[in-house]
Amino acid sequence: MNLRWQLAILLVLILCFAFPVNAHVPVSIDGNYDIITALLVEKPTRSFVVYGDLHKAGDVAWYQLQMNPGDRLVVSLMVPSYNTPIPDMIVMSPGVTSYSEGFPKTVSVPQGYSAEIIKGQPPHKAEYEPFTPAAVFEVASYSKEITGPGLYYLAVFSPADDTRYSIATGYAEEFTPSEWIFVPLNVISTHLWERQSIITILTPFLAVVVLGFVMISRREKRKGSHLTCSCWLATIAGLCYIGGAAITLVQLVRAIAVTGPSSSIVLTLIFAIIPIALGIWALRMGRTSSKRTMKERASLALIAILGLIFWAGLVIGPLLAIGAAVIPYQSKSFQTKIQ
To answer: Which residue of 7, 158, 272, 307 could cross-link 163, Cys pair, CB 3.0 to 4.6 Å?
Structure first.
């Protein structure tokens, strides 16, 4: 087996084993089944989504939110599909103790808190979410203007086993640089929560990257070309960009099959077309086997930066593009070994 096929097999193994390890639900809720271990939602006015699963009937997932005067407590409760168990939620506010009707016995309200139940309703229509992309099934919502500071509690419960839900809080669209960069991996986590298999999610990416790598390797062998390590890194980066866009397009089709057409599709297409264009640019940069100029290295660095901004290549692509930009020029003897 020549080195080219060894590299191809190694690439498949890396892609197959690396992503399931990283593609977890963004926030684990296994430990917040008691008010003492309630998950703290930092900056509750900032848009935030947590995905959870109530494994058994009677389980309660707890969240705590520190609110300040002038804030607005905004919460949405969602499920992954039609014909799935519908959870309810309870909002507990510091103040005069009072309970709404139908309060479950399995939930204990802290002393000095009022509790209001928001019953989940079976969704009649799914909304298209352009960034994931995905179909969103909202079953309950809550909004309240905060006049005094305090610690608020949110409890999610269901009378059924295996109830999957997601909680969206806040209204301010804010991201830290690291949160923005890792959105593509968190999106994969969302699809896993929807009960899509990791193979289903990654098949478009793997097909583009692996098949593209093999085809380009064969083309270079027929031409008798000797690509540098930098060229290979740029080439694989380009394939990762296009493969990531393929995942987005497949998920778009899956979502609109449920929700129907939406004007928000345009936004999804932007986050697919730009990575494809960057991928083609990187592939062209990968065809240059001569010593790289500073202009070419700057172009590869720009491809990497834009890839991070536009969620291209599942983070791997931009990292490879950075590597292609900074790696020293290799001698021809090294290139020949690669071939």
So the answer is: 158
